[in-house]
Specification:
Galactose-bd-like_sf; six-stranded parallel β-sheet; Asl1-like glycosyl hydrolase catalytic domain-containing protein; Asl1_glyco_hydro_catalytic; single chain; seven-stranded antiparallel β-sheet; ASL1; Gamma-B Crystallin, domain 1; Jelly Rolls; TIM Barrel; about 700 residues
């Protein structure tokens, strides 16, 4: 029995792996590691799921990796120590292949590698624990229209359309045995840390114990979420704030912050016990709380439990859902969210099996935002640098100002001998960034001169910031400039400047394509040419135009095919051209977004035409028969239908053009259930037998 069960689970795991890989661009090497900068020198490939550590890193590249190439659709966690700890980072190739140099925290320091498929879901998910009698029964979740699921444990599985995120619920869940079991899973790339460790009725773990336990989870190579506390203990100075501070000082990785929110402050606050609060007020408190958490930790947010309080009415929950979900979709820092349905307001009625009002509101909302939209390349989205911490030349003093971001400002300078230089600004590849300069220029506009990596001097005019000085309470104004940075460390030098507060280096958002096209092909059939195409991902995809080149090689619309809209799973499309020309046919695909923007893909060519005529039966019905004739040349001919008794039931002169021709023969089944269709041209005859 044990052997039979093991085979059952092995077989199920293989099915899941296959389904996940259908959503990923095939590649023989998901990660290539290089000894040299910019993908040069000794190299080796690392494949999916395998953990490489220490001397098992191929080509003897332990502690000798400087650059990597990561295939789109995969993530790769690289770490300093063989157990996945120390400096570590989960690189993710979301929009394109990543060809990057490692920053100083990992350059020539990598002793741990794990590559995983990236099943990038939509944001909307569900927290649901199936009944003990029917484990992994997700009948309820199936009705909620969600893209991901968690169940406060490690035992469910992902499917091709819904990702499972496992959780290490309590202290025991982070021991070596369980970590080994997590590593063995074949459908996971996210791991949530402890559930309400600040709550004696939940996992009940002290901060001092939780941090080393969380460190154990780094050995999985998964993206790691923070422990999720009760809402009142998620801020600075409380349980989660203390955990995050200790994790950071101990160099222990937390990739995103998980939070819970039940509006307990509203329930016991201004109007205690109000079972029907205004959903707009509940929503306002929710927004303020979530924004505060993000501004505190500046990491992606997963809201794994939230609702409008278990004591309020169904109508309050419905109103809150209708306000909160569109807002969550629009916030770039929200990666995922999962509504927690109170026991008194389940999503599905246990008697009828139908969605309740609250369940219907959640199910009817169609999520459209991908959880992760941009690559994770090791560089922060925004790097803030205080002017007073830069290298100063020709000026030795700074001024105190409590209203500036760092408490100090650097006086204005003129001439080329006074310089403020920011060094070691790392970029994983050569690309443009936004340089945001915060400054004070009292009463008058001033110029600022800057150089990137000691290159050409550039002069930009900065507007006046007003009449107040910083110490009088004035806020710094900022100016944005687009600058190019090279691979590795960069410097920015300022000479002529007004008073400087700080600068920021901000990633420019990538151009997000509405679809990811994985295949566009043509195949010759008896009836013509069949066009096939497949997408791995669609965002606001309205429709496709299929175009065909005419005799003048000008592409004209052949057909319009409706798109899926939004999808994170493979979608397949096809169209049949019943009238290809003999010779080479050219087809092109054009995709239109909901806002009218379009993308045109490279054309494909297919040769059609036979050396001799081809005569085929296409279809039959009670009233007619359809046939096709493929001909290399244009010709005149005769087509006829003879009954089984020899009577001619239909005869017609026809003109056959070069290429594929289709003809409909209107003979009723009652006249000729069985018959012979013949085509005669140029002294040659071809026949088909028909039985209807």
């Amino acid at each position: 029995m044990a052997l039979r069960l093991s085979f059952k689970y092995l077989f199920r795991s293989l099915i899941i792996i296959t389904a996940l890989l259908l959503n990923i661009k095939r590649s023989s090497a998901q990660l290539t590691i290089y000894q040299g900068s910019q993908q040069t020198g000794t190299s080796a490939t690392c494949v999916v799921r395998t953990i490489y550590s220490g001397t098992s890193i191929p080509s003897s590249l332990d502690n000798q990796i400087t650059s990597i190439k990561l295939t789109k659709g995969f993530m790769a966690t690289l770490a300093e120590n063989a157990d996945g700890s120390g400096n570590s980072y989960p690189f993710m190739a979301v929009t394109n292949d990543l060809n990057i140099d490692l920053n100083s925290s990992l350059d020539n320091k990598v002793s741990f590698i794990r590559v995983l498929p990236l099943q990038n879901t939509l944001k909307k998910g569900a927290g649901y624990k199936s009944p003990d009698a029917t484990p992994n029964d997700n009948t309820v979740v199936d009705q909620l229209n969600v893209s991901w699921l968690y169940d406060w444990g490690p035992n469910d599985v992902s499917t091709s359309t819904r990702e499972y995120a496992l959780m290490a619920w309590g202290a025991g869940a982070a021991n070596q045995t369980n970590v080994t079991n997590y590593i063995a899973k074949t459908d996971i790339n996210h791991l949530l840390s402890f559930n309400e460790p600040d709550n004696s009725a939940q996992s009940n773990i002290t901060v001092a114990d939780a941090v080393p336990l969380h460190k154990n989870l780094e050995a999985t190579g998964y993206r790691l979420g923070s422990p999720a506390t009760e809402e009142q203990n998620a801020q600075t100075g409380r349980w989660l704030g203390n955990f995050m501070n200790l994790a950071e000082s101990s160099n222990i990785r937390v990739d995103y912050v998980a939070i819970h929110w039940y509006d307990w402050g509203g329930w016991s606050g201004t109007i205690p016990g109000n079972v029907s609060p205004d959903p707009q007020n509940v929503f306002s408190r929710f927004k303020a709380y979530v924004n505060n958490i993000y501004n505190t930790y500046k990491k992606p947010i997963w809201i794994t439990e939230f609702n409008a309080n278990r004591n309020t009415t169904s109508a309050t929950h419905v109103g809150f859902i209708n306000l909160a979900l569109p807002w969550l979709e629009a916030q770039p820092f929200i990666e995922r969210y999962a509504y927690f349905f109170p026991p008194t307001l389940p999503p599905v009625d246990p008697i009828s099996g139908n969605l309740t009002a609250v369940g219907t509101a959640y199910s009817n909302f169609n999520a459209s935002s991908l959880a992760i939209k941009n690559n994770f390349d090791g560089a922060p989205d925004t790097l803030s640098l205080e002017a007073e911490n830069a290298t100063l030349a020709g000026i030795t003093t700074t001024s105190n100002c409590t209203f500036s971001s760092g408490g100090k400002i650097v006086p204005g300078r003129t001439g080329s001998t006074q310089k403020v230089t920011f060094e070691n600004i790392f970029s994983p590849y050569a690309t443009n960034y936004k340089l945001r300069i915060y400054y004070y220029s009292i009463n008058t506009a001033k110029n600022i001169t800057y150089k990137i990596n000691g290159g050409t001097a550039n002069v930009v005019s900065l507007a006046s910031t007003g009449s107040q000085f910083c110490f009088e309470g004035a806020s710094a104004r900022f100016q944005d400039i687009t600058i190019p940075l090279t691979i590795g460390n960069n410097s920015i030098e300022f000479t002529e400047t007004p008073i400087l507060d700080r600068i920021q280096i901000i990633k420019l958002p990538p151009t997000t394509l509405p679809i990811t096209l994985t295949n566009f092909s043509a195949e010759v059939k008896e009836y013509g040419v069949k066009l096939n195409w497949q997408t791995a991902q669609e965002v606001n995809n309205q429709y496709f135009e299929l175009l065909k080149a005419d005799d003048k090689k000008e592409f004209k619309v052949l057909a319009q095919i409706k798109g899926t809209g939004n999808s994170n799973s493979p979608k397949f499309y096809s169209f049949a051209d019943f009238n290809p020309i003999t010779g080479t046919n050219y087809y092109q695909l054009k995709q239109y977004d909901l806002d009218g923007k379009f993308e045109t893909f490279n054309p494909i060519a297919v040769k059609f035409g036979l050396a001799e005529d081809n005569f085929s039966l296409l279809s039959t019905s009670a009233s007619s028969v359809s046939v096709s004739i493929s001909s290399a040349t244009a010709k005149e001919g005769v087509i006829s239908y003879l009954g089984i008794d020899g009577r001619i039931l239909y005869k017609q002169n026809i003109s056959v053009k070069s290429g594929l021709n289709t003809f409909n023969i209107p003979v009723d089944k009652s006249q000729g259930q069985i018959g012979i269709i013949s085509f005669t041209a140029g002294g040659e005859q071809k026949t088909l037998k028909v039985s209807r």
